[in-house]
Amino acid sequence: MKNLSVIILLVSMALMLHQCQARRELHPLILVPGSGGNQLEAQLTEAYKPSSLLCKKKKGWFRIWFDPRVIVTPLTKCFAERMTLYYDPQIDDYRNAPGVETRVPHFGSTQALLYLDPHLKHITTYMEPLVNSLEQLGYIDGDNLFGAPYDFRYGLASGGHPSLVGTQFLQNLKELIENASASNGGKPVIVLSHSLGGLFVLHLLNRNPSTWRQKFIKHFIALSAPWGGTVQEMLTFASGYTLGVPLVDPLLVREEQRSSESNLWLLPSKFFGQTPLVITPNRTYTASDMPQFIEDIGFERGVYPYTSRILPLIEELVAPQVPVTCIIGGGIKTPETLFYGEDGFNKQPEVVYGDGDGTVNMVSLLALQSEWSHVAKQVLKVTKIPHVSHTSILKDVVALREIIGEISDINSVGLLATA
Questions:
Q1: Whole-number pLDDT of residue 396
Q2: Does domain 29-418 bear CATH number 3.40.50.1100?
Q3: Has 161 been annotated as catalytic?
Q4: Does residue 387 carry a catalytic annotation?
Q5: 193: Cβ contacts below 8 Å, ≥ 6 apart
């Protein structure tokens, strides 16, 4: 009996040693979520003036995203006024609503990415299935696995224009990458993004010198990245979009959604060519008509920020000269053309669907493939998974197998290179 206990102890010690060795061999991994993909907190100051008694000021910090009570119509209005951004032409940048301060909890950890509401884990699950799969591979939160949540309402701006919040996030992400590498024996980092996060990561790479990229970046994996924007975003700007949440009037959240700097970034770009995207009785809009579209939907104040800050930002997708893998879904009906009648943009349009992941059109998902086809020394791999949607790519069994397989292969290559 004593011999059996010794054997069990030795086996347990061997397994622990093997796991430790496996962890040491893994390249550190950083997860960058998409828009709405992490928790966001707010507090209200004396400058906050609620529009109604239902929006009365709360004390201290509270979770503003995601709070399921926003589906109640009166509270939807409170949520929208607190989440709204304002472009200030005096400083040429975006800011929060008066009296609203926001912060991003748990930067550096995956904690804020697992669920949007930790009290409703089942219905607000985000990256939890992916993180579980990574843990089975040997990744440990805070050790060799890290999260980079951010205030997804803010975006970036082209050169010469300030973008305080977005630029600060890039700096924080850069430091996280450097620290993750340093704490893991100097190994370069794998950065894995979802959706909008991919646009931030690409800009981070291209805003740092090649020497930095070669030292700190092992591989960039982008899931469901909207490289060329989406037609869905035109619907959001024109008529509001409730993400499929029932009972919520899309017009109640339209102004808040229009105010988002990152939403401007996601309007369709040149990759859509001259394809008609929005058709009305008076006008047809293509990707090159975005400034006129923004004005015609009644959002005139968005024209200047778009043309001056966003448009130059999306004209070119620069190859970062580090290995890039795009994993995308497809075969899901995705808004491709919006038809508006005489009632205008206050009514939901008739939608014609095409191929994509349900949110991002296929031409946008494949934009890097067309943009970088002749770029020398740029390693690009694109993997398409049939019948996987924009968000289910983070939990679908086949998709997770593909993602984990890609990460395993990257780590194997790194191990062989040092052997």
A1: 98
A2: no
A3: no
A4: no
A5: 31, 32, 33, 34, 200, 201, 220, 221, 222, 223, 225
